[in-house]
Amino acid sequence: MKVRIAREDLLTALQRVQGVVEKRNTMPILANILLEAKPEGLDVIATDLEIGMRGLYKAVVEDSGSVTFSARKLFEILKEVRDPEVEMTVSDTSWVTIRSGRSEFRVVGLPSQDYPALPAIERDGLIPLPASGLLELIRKTLFAVSDHDTRYVLNGLFIAVMPKGSGRAMIRLVGTDGHRLALAEDEISADKGKLPLEETQVIIPKKAGNEIRRLLEEDDSEPLIGFTKNMVIFRKSGLVLTSRVMEGNFPDYQKVVPKESSKKLIVAREDLEGALRRVSLLSKDKSYAVKITIEPDRMFLFSSNPDMGEANEEIPAKFKGEGFSTGFNAKYLLDVLSVIGAESLSLQMENPLSPCLIQEQGNPKFKAVVMPVKV
Question: Under a CB-based contact definition with an 8 Å cutoff, are residues 74 and 21 in contact?
């Protein structure tokens, strides 16, 4: 195998797969990437057995072939060399020689046949989606997905596609860790035959959601997404990402989301976000507990820490009715506020112990729920 490729193109390929490459040494070869040189260019492939990514990059291929070697080491080499072109030659014993300008590196590789195969996929059945719309849905829900919950399905992002007829469907994403929940949905349209005939529901790992978000952030080219019984497929700009779906039943999130209440408080996002950041500086480290007192046309935020002191702040808010006090994990509220773009938002709760429904003003397609805490 012998191939020449632009350093920037290969560096981009390596940056894309860094999040996929397995960093725990369960199988040493999973810390590697697979390079396949063929007449069309250079295929760069990575997998951790759960998520796989394949991208084809323009290259001059003098000798076809394939090899697998350390993704991290190649990435470190590419960051340091400065010549615009990189040449890679692979020997019969899988040693990889990398040349760039006056620099030369010899890196040990492994035979490509030892690398796990990615699942074969078809282009048919993939749904075209607006890149900015899908990115917004992921951004508004992924933060609420748990990282290491013992309830396995809470470590995944729930995706549902619900046909509405006439080439239209609703796509809904839900993330929750049991303490907070985020739901975002949007209507999509496509040509006849491109949307599923029945409602499709899958749970994808949080890691897959993060990788899809990173790819969407690169540019505005339209992605395609599809689902099989045990896999989700994401295709964009010559890149294909596949992920196993998670088994299990997602919680009945519809029961968790409270109905709109007459007890509605409206507040400016910047005011609430700033006050929460300041007051939480003196909250207890692990709980981030902040007491919130709501009164007509204003709200008070208070925190205390026996070892540090206390903080309080008053901000204006629109509220009518009998006031009450409750408590929240400030970090959970700040996570919600970080994905809200509107200038004002509403907080609704029936009583101090009930879940709090948070919505952007004028946007019924996004809902966040945060459970109160004792303060």
Answer: no
